[in-house]
Design brief:
Blueprint: E1 2-6, E2 14-20
Antiparallel strand pairs: 1-2
Length: 59
């Protein structure tokens, strides 16, 4: 099973989406992590991320 969590303060973490079954682990390349912004008014804009932290835990 794979699942994601997020935190805005680094202390409290909340589930992001639902857990999902990795059905074919032999070909699984891993989850892809990305940060993006959506602007549905104009075809331009920007986003400024000041900090991003990724931590892998193997339970």
């Amino acid at each position: 099973m794979a699942n994601f969590h997020f935190s805005t303060d680094g202390i409290k973490f909340f589930p992001l989406g639902h857990p999902y079954q990795i059905t074919n682990f032999g070909n699984y390349l891993g989850a892809k992590i990305g940060l993006f912004s959506l602007n549905d008014i104009n075809d331009k804009g920007f986003v400024d991320f000041d900090w991003f932290h990724y931590q892998f835990t193997n339970k």
